[in-house]
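Q: Two folds, back to back.
A: First:
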Amino acid sequence: MSTAARALLLLVALRFVAHALYVPAYEGPDEPFHLAHGERFVDPAIVASIASHPCSADLQKAIGCAPFGSAPAEWNVLGARASRPLDGWRPASPRERARDARGPAGEDARAPVANYEYHQPPGYYAVLPLLPVADLVTKLLAMRLFSVLLVLLALVALRTVLPDRAFCAALVVLLIPGAAESLARCANDPAVFLWSAIVMWALHRRVATPWLALLAALGPLCKLTAIPIVALIVLWTFFNRPRVHALLVALASLAFLPLQWLRGFAWGGTVELNAARAPFHETFAQSAVGLARSGYTFAKTAFWLGEWSFFRAPIWLLVLVAIFIIAAVVSLQRRKAVEWKPHIGALIVATGATLWWFISHRLFWGDWGGVGGWYAWAWFPWLAVAAHELFTIRRGRALFIAGALLVIVANVAWFVAAHHIYAK
């Protein structure tokens, strides 16, 4: 590993740890609900019913504890009124959550509310019973640091697959604010990130088919966003091994279905397909505009989310990012004689699944655009390897320098905006 790669790896580690410590408790997207879901593996009494998995009053009281940062977050998403019954419950839209969180003063919002992360497979959350702490805020911090550890382990595996220059480029991309927002939090995306890196290592080393089948089984047990990379494993096996091996890997990848079924969920536990849907009364043109808005929001929040206070990136910064992306795309050249079919197949699956998710999100939440780009970061090890294997870049040194400068500017802007919110 070159000196530059070591320095960048250290910067990524410091950036992620600093993020885990600086961001106030529960400001990470969906953190209270992920922690509540994990708590059910520790203390079943926290969850009233396997059908609803509500966030407990105890967990919501923990919001009042001193955060890791200098002050509480701007608003508390678990402060939403809990008057709606759990039976037939429909999640509020982001606007409704914000409105309810700032509801009438003195209202008791500590009653359990339904947890929209209750469907998640158990892979990531199994570590919670091993934590020797009882305080929920301390557990949250421990889970954030555990997520950072998973990311760093993944980068060790990824280094064995990518050459030094490509690895350095990947590390610079990981310094984008959205990467830490997505991965240095209490959520199961870092587990998929690590699994994805191990898959890339396994395919690079051409490990035996039983190991590929095991990996295909483990990914969806962490999160269903692993499915596009499962498709990559199946397609790689199909093109490089006997067809029966690909069938074995495909069958192994379905291991999460009976587990989720035993937990009471259809469709692998996909939350949008296991709850009542909001009414859908739109013209085709309105839906097309809404779909475009969801795509823009997904891309923007992958770069900069603004945590759960949703503080926004400056417009000038988004314009600079768009210009850089256009310059990078124009500089791409396709490599010849590469094994491109598995990557292209996985990209088709990922694109189709993302579009389906945009539409399902609209049906479930009742609004377009509220889709977080943090899901894409779980695929980053695969996307980095795919980009290296499919393309070369002209003027790579100039783009690397420009990208590094852009990352520096973005981080300064992010911390300035965050300090304005958190240091009140």
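A: Second:
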Amino acid sequence: MQNTHVHSGKQALDVEIVSTNPNNQSINGSIYHILPRSQRSWSQGSQIRFWVNNASENALLLSFNFKEEFNEYWTINNSGVFFLQSEEGDLLQQEILYGNLPIPANYQGFVVTPFYSFTVPDWNTARGDRIMNLARIESYAIAVNIGENSPSTFTIDDIEVLAFDEMKTLEIQGVESILVPPSGEHREQYTAFLSSLAKNTSEEVSAIWSLCQPYDPLIKIDDKGNLTIPAGIQSSSVILAATYPSQGNSITKEFTIVLDNGQSSPEEQIALETPDKPTQVVDSTDYQSSKTFETWATENRVLFVIISVSAILLILSLLSLFQRRIK
């Protein structure tokens, strides 16, 4: 705990990433916290939020998991959405990357993860019905994937469960790759949709369109989502953004478009579009085999007892036979 780079209060948690585990070369680590009885009811919550300061020049890969009392673990899904949130409450929608929350370099602000972006992980061995029950949560853990981010330090503060309405998501529909025209200009239209996972609905909405820096000033987008790419553009990509006011605060979704100007090979374009896959942060993998057996034995107690008794009787029979032969 330190009292220098805090968001509120007097102390925050500083996490120093030194190196991989020297014993097993693991690049994953986690900080585990058991909740006091007074903080175990999350039943009115819809999302987890915490403040983070990533002072590194590299992205930080975080994950979060929690455990129901007497039941299963829940962790960040392999894919889905989370949000970066400003002090004013505005949201920037982000994509979960193989079970990790990618925190941008030099980012300082809130990270918000809706409960619909959590799932029961493969490594879970606790019994349960795979239905999220937030009435009794006994513990949580913040995990980090070191990757290329060592040595470095990040700060965590103000971990809280928020009881807002369902967080809707903003989606952009349109082509992901555009061939730069040899002459004139090319126009492509993009459309924004607001989606509700709970209601399984999606509706087209009017959004505020913009281009993210850096971009060629000759590239334009109007208030209807019409993107104009003129001839001769040398950029390999452009990022457009749609912003929609929601729940008193705005939601912004960014969308990357690959520009084919004839200077890149198809292999290079694929490499540009496909991010490297980081290792998914997990709670523990050292005892998977024993945990798997424990789970099977618990769920098949009668069969386990029969097999155990049969094995004991077989051993006794063999010992008796061996003893008679000695006599």
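Q: And?
A: The radius of gyration is 26 Å.
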